[in-house]
Structure formats: structure tokens, C-alpha cells
Amino acid sequence: MNAAVRTESHLVWPLLFSVLVSVSVAFECVASDDGDKPHKVTDAKLGNTRNVHACGKLFLAGQPSPDDIAVLKEKGIQRVITLRTDGEVDWDEAGKVKQAGIEFVKIPFGRPDSLTDQVFDKVRKALKDHQKPTLLHCGSANRVGAVWLTYRVLDEGVPVDQAIKEAKRVGLRSSAYLQKALDYIRRHSKG
Fold first, then answer.
1. What is the pLDDT of residue 5?
2. Are residues 80 and 127 in the same domain?
């Protein structure tokens, strides 16, 4: 190899290394941005509400009590989505939530046969609004786990196995709800 080629290669390698480091650092910054990665599930507390977990600005839980509504307000929750049907709650949850200045959304379903594509679609659409700190609840978080599972997989790109574990952690206990969620995921997956 002549001297000119050796000199050029000595100049190229440091330049190439510098470019690779720059690209690596830029990629790391993008990959660590919370907007690009699903939030982790953590245990949380909202007054006396049972089975509370947080995932970013989303709280997943069982039924809050009337006294817990003030706690929701203190925690900055701006929207409550209930999955409970008429007659399941013996107090005016909607009125109390609205009185606290919190948006109230009702997407009710009960038995597994009432967990339809329309319910999954409505919950997924509601959860896509990442700007509003939100509480998604039912009685125990069993139903919450089912509908959140579909959102977690289809909208946040979490692998199915991981999302199932998370859904069970937050409250999913019904195998019938799980099967409905997995069927919905299968039919709505892109590819």
C-alpha cells in the first residue's frame, strides 16, 4: 500500500468512528424519549381505591369511593372512564366526579358477551388522548385489564405475552375476558 492510501485511511477511520458515535448518541436520545416507549406499570395509591396501578398518566383501578374523588382531583386526574354498568354503583359517581371538575366518561360492559368490538374501540380511542391524566376503572380492575390489554398491544406496541402479564397484574382474572381481548387483537393486528 502506498503512503497516500495509508494516510487517507488514517483520516477516514477517526471520521467514521465520530459519525458512528454521533448516530448512536442520537438514537439513544430518541429511544429513551418517553413518547417512543410504553410506560412501565407501577403500583400506585388513590385514597382507599383498591388495586391501583399507574402507567404514565393513566391510572388503572377498581371502584373509587365517594371520598376518593377529592384524592383524584389532588392527584391531577382530569378524566375518569368507568366500565361499570347502571346499577353497579350505589352512589352518583358521575355527579360527584363532574362536581369535582373532572370529565366523566362511561363505556359500560358487564358479562363477557357484552365486551364487544365497539367497547374495545371506544376504550382505545379514549386512551389515545395521552395529555389528560386519566383513571380507567371498573369494580375490581378485572374488566380494566381486558380492555387495556388491547390498547397496550395494538396502540403501544407491547408484545402480547408482556401485555397479558401486565393486564393480570392490574386486575384481569377472567379467562373469558382474556379470550375476547386476544380475539380482538388477532383480528385488528396489522400483519
1. 46
2. yes
